[in-house]
């Protein structure tokens, strides 16, 4: 059986139930040998920058995934790099480390697929890894709603989870069943609003992330002011 590594990259500012559900879904679909979580160092498309520091984002990831079906390795290489975070660079490194035969599956939500053609050297990504893309409320997975260049690139690559698991790169599995309407943007806003959130229609932070992560945020005074 092919050695399979599922990889979830993200800003995780902070990690929330949507991230854990996305990773869990693909662990169940792919049965990977390894799950890696890769916090971005300098996610260049997030123009406003990140609010929490790298050490806090890593600490929160460890807490959020402590009960996961497969205990992930938190891979900090993108944080240690002092240049903007380009996935193509990370996947080149990983391919060199894992060898030509490993199945690498980069996981993402539908919002990222919608703008995949804005990623640096995006067409090279398919030579390096497979992709597992999950539905996300507010974003379409259907080809008719994707940028035409992305839809064209995807069409011949669509595959079942079993095919992706046994393929080293170039295949894409779409998972339509995820429906977690949570974003870190909304979560940061709820945390900043604090007690005021109780008096509004806003969802409470406790509904959006793991209790141990919320405790960490409160103990370390993150997302205040
Ligand atoms: N609710 C969700 N459902 C499906 N995928 C998600 C969800 N939230 C995040 N993801 C995916 O997880 C990865 C990392 O996301 P990220 O850390 O940027 O969180 P975010 O909630 O999108 O953050 P922000 O609101 O700050 O943009 C991305 O591939 C993103 O598509
Ligand atoms: O390589 C790129 O140009 C690129 C552009 C946008 C996003 N990404 C990656 O996609 C993942 C999710 O990004 P984000 O912004 O939703 O946290 C994370 O691993 C980013 O490094 C990568």
Question: Structural class, please?
Answer: alpha/beta
Second CATH tier, the architecture: 3-Layer(aba) Sandwich
Strand order, main sheet: write it out: 3-2-1-4-5-6
What ions, cofactors and ligands are bound? adenosine-5'-triphosphate, nicotinate mononucleotide
Question: Any idea what the radius of gyration is?
Answer: 17 Å
Given as residue ranges, the uncertain stretches (5+ residues, pLDDT < 50) are none
| Shape category | globular
Bin the helical content: 25-40%
Span from first to last CA? 51 Å
The H/E string reads EHEHEHHEHHEHHEHH
What percent of residues are in strands?
5-15%
CATH topology name: Rossmann fold
Q: Mean of the pLDDT scores?
A: 95
The DSSP helix count reads 10
CATH homologous superfamily grouping: HUPs
Describe the sheet with the most strands.
Answer: 6 strands, parallel
**Structural domain count:** 1
Question: Class in CATH?
Answer: Alpha Beta
How do the helices and strands line up, and which of them pair or pack?
Layout: E1 4-10, H1 17-30, E2 34-39, H2 54-64, E3 73-74, H3 77-80, H4 87-98, E4 103-109, H5 110-114, H6 125-128, E5 130-134, H7 148-154, H8 161-165, E6 172-175, H9 184-193, H10 211-219
Helix pairs in contact: 2-10
The chain binds adenosine-5'-triphosphate and nicotinate mononucleotide.
